[in-house]
Design goal:
Largest sheet: none
Number of strands: 0
Order of helices and strands: HHHHHHHHHHHHH
Shape: flat
Low-confidence stretches: 211-220
Length: 228
């Protein structure tokens, strides 16, 4: 929280962050070569790390660099931000949160530990939720960073592509590109709902299946020991 407050204060004070909009993009990144791309990445990572929606960053990326480069740069920024937030949370908040909320952390860890890559992928596809909070919560659990971050990176891609295409469509005033991006957003939402329902159905099926009490107790004890 202290790190987020510090970065938020810097964003509020420094004009390079407070003016991160269409005019800023026009002045500092578009047609500015490698320097413009690096500046966009740095500012985007900082903004994403304090809770700015990644869709907005992808939109501005498409506006500044076109669809392909805007999609690539915004996805890289979201992935780097995810990694930073995850590692900061794990290094500085994990012990405190586990001590204050042991039962909740065990429950979340047990959910994310199995098929971490797939679950991170599906979570990022969902149109609801907060990217920053998801990264911070995952960091205080026992989840392994690599499958979580790689699953998140792939899960980011559909929406980043959609909003980068929207940004590109605004530049060239292309009605069909805007319409196509809206249709893609609808398909992405339907896919995420389908995957979520499949997960819920599989979970209900697994919960209803009989299990050995002794094995379940042993698994719970082992997991609590791992968390400790």
């Amino acid at each position: 929280m202290l790190i987020i407050c510090g970065v938020s204060y810097a964003i509020d004070v420094l004009p390079v962050f407070s003016e991160f909009n269409q005019q800023w993009i026009d002045a500092h990144t578009r047609n500015n070569g490698l320097k413009g791309a690096l500046l966009f990445l740095v500012v985007a990572v900082c903004l994403l790390s304090v809770g700015v929606p990644r869709q907005g960053v992808a939109f501005l990326g498409g506006y500044a660099f076109g669809f392909t480069e805007g999609f690539v740069y915004s996805t890289i920024a979201a992935t780097v931000s995810c990694s930073l937030c995850f590692l900061v949370s794990r290094l500085f908040a994990r012990k405190l949160v586990q001590r204050l909320f042991p039962v909740k952390i065990i429950r979340i860890s047990s959910f994310l530990s199995g098929q971490t890559f797939l679950k991170a992928f599906v979570i990022r596809l969902l149109p609801l939720g907060n990217n920053l909070i998801t990264n911070v919560i995952a960091g205080v659990t026992t989840v392994k960073p690599l499958p979580f971050i790689t699953g998140s990176a792939l899960g980011y891609m559909p929406q980043m592509a959609i909003f980068a295409l929207m940004g590109k469509g605004i530049v060239v005033q292309s009605g069909w590109k805007l319409a196509f991006s809206v249709c893609m957003l609808g398909v992405s939402m339907l896919l995420s709902i389908y995957l979520y329902r499949r997960y819920k159905a599989d979970k209900m099926l697994n919960d209803s299946s009989p299990s050995c009490p002794a094995e379940s107790a042993h698994s719970s004890t082992s997991y609590k020991a791992e968390v400790k």
